[in-house]
Design goal:
This protein is mainly β and about 250 residues long. The chain has helices spanning about 1-25, 125-130, 165-170, and strands at about 25-35, 40-45, 50, 55-60, 60-65, 70, 75, 80-85, 95-100, 110-120, 145-150, 160-165, 175-180, 185-195, 200-205, 210-215, 220-225, 230-240, 245-250.
Length: about 250
């Protein structure tokens, strides 16, 4: 009887540790630009992850992140932070796939962390992603690259991917204007007329409210975003008779 309870305790502790590790290391592919080889990863977990040991794979090519160029962020990826790298695995704009692995065992669903394919289905690593439970067989992203993950970190599949809007598209949508996008230390907005009795809210991609500020008698606004983690944010301006939302990039 004592051995039974000992074994049960060990099993419970093991499952708890594995669950904790999964939450700690929930790193996903966030943005893919096959025309430049640029790939952005986002840490949706609660702990810092060294993604330098991770691999990107487009069968039959692969790169370990520690061996390629980092253009933004750090490979020591903090919670809710992003890192952008330039891969040389030959991603094609029209039709390709990308797998993220925690080791070089590319046929292993345990090693696979995330996956996306676009242009067509049936790429080499699709079956690994299907076995992992993060992709549906025969599905692919039909949007035009660059591509962006639009889910909340726990959602999987082609339906949670779409096209990344360019900077000009950000600024041409709606009435308020983002003066400089991407932003580094400050986010500057310009309004076509004086804004009265409105509210501005900024959300991260998880849908969490980061900042809220009232607007009154404003023709423009300058906000300090220097403490924001690098990544993409949603900014919404609400008034009594209108609501407009845009995205901006924090470098």
């Amino acid at each position: 009887m004592k051995n039974y309870y000992t074994q049960k305790l060990i099993l419970t502790l093991t499952l708890s540790v594995l669950s904790f590790i999964a939450v700690q290391s929930q790193v996903r592919i966030q943005v893919v630009d096959p025309s430049t080889g640029s790939v952005t990863l986002h840490n949706y977990g609660s702990g810092t992850v060294n993604v330098g040991t991770y691999w990107l794979c487009n069968f039959p090519s692969y790169n370990q992140l520690s061996s390629i160029t980092v253009t933004q962020g750090s490979l020591n990826l903090a919670p809710n932070a992003e890192v952008t790298v330039i891969t040389s695995i030959g991603l094609l704009v029209a039709d390709s796939e990308l797998g993220l692995y925690n080791s070089s065992t590319f046929g292993s669903s345990t090693a696979m962390q995330d996956y996306v394919q676009w242009g067509s289905a049936g790429h080499q690593r699709e079956v690994v992603a299907v076995n992992k439970g993060i992709w549906s067989s025969g599905t692919f992203v039909s949007a035009t690259p660059p591509l962006q993950y639009t889910g909340n970190g726990s959602q999987n599949g082609a339906q949670f991917w779409g096209s990344v809007l360019g900077i000009e598209e950000f600024e041409n949508a709606g009435n308020f204007k983002i003066i400089k996008n991407p932003a580094q230390d400050f986010l500057e907005l310009e309004f076509p007329t004086v804004i009265n009795q409105a509210q501005i809210k900024i959300y991260n991609l998880l849908g969490h409210l980061v900042i809220s500020e009232d607007l009154n008698n404003k023709l423009g606004l300058k906000m300090d975003v220097s403490s924001f983690a690098q990544g993409i944010y949603m900014i919404t301006v609400n008034s009594d008779n209108a609501s407009q939302t845009k995205r901006f990039i924090k470098q």
